[in-house]
Specification:
62% of the residues lie in helices and 0% in strands. It has one domain (5-96). The chain has four helices and no strands.
């Protein structure tokens, strides 16, 4: 699902190089580059107005807030996913079986 940070939990399996994965992950959690603008192609005079600049600033702040929230959600889900995977490996391993189950 594009835009959903939780799909990163699955995408990690497709990266063999840890450095490339970390760079990709950092780029998804905290995008760099040109900041999004409220309205593209707006008249130059309107773009310089206080009303537009304050609205654009609120919009950009909402994008930062969105990335903070989704990043925190990903961090929590990543911890939960790791715990789940470790517990399922123990439950499915032959060492985790008792004599009555084997």
């Amino acid at each position: 699902m594009p835009g959903n940070k939780l799909n990163l939990l699955l995408q990690r399996r497709y990266f063999s190089d840890e450095r490339i994965w970390r760079r990709y992950l950092a780029g998804r959690l905290a995008p760099r580059g040109a900041r999004p603008v409220l309205c593209e192609g707006i008249d130059t005079r309107a773009a310089k107005s206080l009303k537009y600049r304050s609205a654009n600033l609120r919009f950009q702040a909402s994008r930062v807030w969105h990335h903070l929230l989704t990043g925190a959600g990903f961090a929590a889900a990543n911890v939960a996913w790791g715990i789940h995977l470790r517990s399922s490996h123990v439950a499915c391993s032959p060492i985790g079986l008792t004599r009555g189950e084997s």
